[in-house]
Design brief:
- The chain is an alpha+beta fold.
- Helices cover 44% and strands 14% of the residues.
- The chain contains ten helices and eight strands.
- It has helices spanning 3-14, 39-44, 46-54, 77-85, 113-126, 175-200, 215-219, 228-241, 246-255, 264-283, and strands at residues 20-26, 29-30, 58-63, 69-75, 92-97, 100-106, 140-141, 163-166.
- The strands form two sheets. The chain has a four-stranded antiparallel beta sheet with strand order 2-1-3-7.
- Strand 5 and strand 6 form a beta hairpin.
């Protein structure tokens, strides 16, 4: 087994997936026919990849379809240290050029496309990664091959190898907490966008249409199954967007209060807290 094969095997183990897309990019574009192939098929094509790389093609890889990984691009050592200190230890780290890294993070589950992109964008913003490379389908450079960008050509005419620095394959320690955080933020953002779309659809001549707004309709939605508090916030966002007064919104929540706790102070605090959250989202 040569060094390239050993390196590729280690990365495939670290970002284990049913199938992979291999990117072979030259001046003529991406080479077709290397999408949705198994790890064994990737290894079988190493001679082809070496040939293409020797003739100036860039070699990339990613899990095929929706997957449980995020790739952060254009990181420096300080950013890698911050990731580890914050509990976001990568399952693989690839040095694409001297002092420049890509990090693969392994999530608890497969993220849907939009959530995967939102997670990538959030992490890229926090850890100073390349924001233009933050999306769910981002390719990473395949280690064991050279980075043949002209600016990296060395004095002897050769290009530096892309190196695999680590390949634990482990899920990062903060994975469960981050999944919960990012899902909550994403759903809140989607509620905000829905409220804005609803608000923009209102006719200023006819005034706000409130007849279709129903708290029960939100609570019975499959989207908010077993999450009545989230349903209450979504209702309030829509109500604010439709021009419903605060007094009326408060009365709706009061009339159908979630808890059986008879404490008036707790009820008032819940209603106030719910409306404040909804108001912030509706006003963005």
């Amino acid at each position: 087994m040569d060094r390239t094969e050993s390196t590729v095997r280690n990365l495939l183990t670290a970002i284990e997936a049913p199938l992979y897309d291999v990117g072979v990019l030259s001046d003529r574009g991406m080479l077709p026919g290397l999408d949705s192939i198994s790890a064994a098929a990737v290894l079988e094509r190493l001679p082809l990849l070496k040939y293409r790389n020797a003739h100036g093609s860039h070699i990339y890889i990613r899990p095929s379809g929706e997957h449980r990984f995020t790739t952060l691009d254009d990181l420096h050592e300080t950013s890698l240290a911050r990731l580890a200190a914050d509990g976001f230890n990568p399952c693989a780290v690839v040095e694409t050029s001297a002092g420049n890294f890509q990090a693969w993070l392994k999530h608890p589950r497969v993220f849907p496309k939009l959530l995967g992109t939102f997670a990538a964008q959030t992490l890229a913003d926090r850890y100073d990664a390349d924001p233009s490379a933050a999306d769910w389908r981002r390719f990473g450079r395949l280690p064991g091959f050279t980075n043949c960008k002209p600016k990296y050509r060395m004095s002897d005419g050769l290009f530096p190898f892309v190196r695999l620095h680590s390949h634990s394959g482990q899920q990062y320690p903060m994975a469960e907490a981050f999944e919960q955080e990012i899902t909550t933020i994403y759903e809140a953002r989607e509620q905000e966008h829905a409220a804005r779309r609803l608000q923009s659809s209102l006719s200023p001549r006819r005034g706000p249409r409130l007849s279709n707004l129903s708290l029960e309709r939100f609570r019975s939605s499959t989207k908010y199954q077993d999450r009545p508090a989230a349903a209450d916030i979504a209702f309030c966002v829509a109500a604010f967007a439709n021009g419903m007064t605060e007094n009326r919104i408060g009365c709706v929540l009061e009339d159908d209060y979630l808890s059986r706790d008879p404490s008036p102070s707790k009820r008032a605090a819940y209603i106030r807290r719910t409306m404040e959250k909804a108001r912030r989202w509706a006003e963005r």
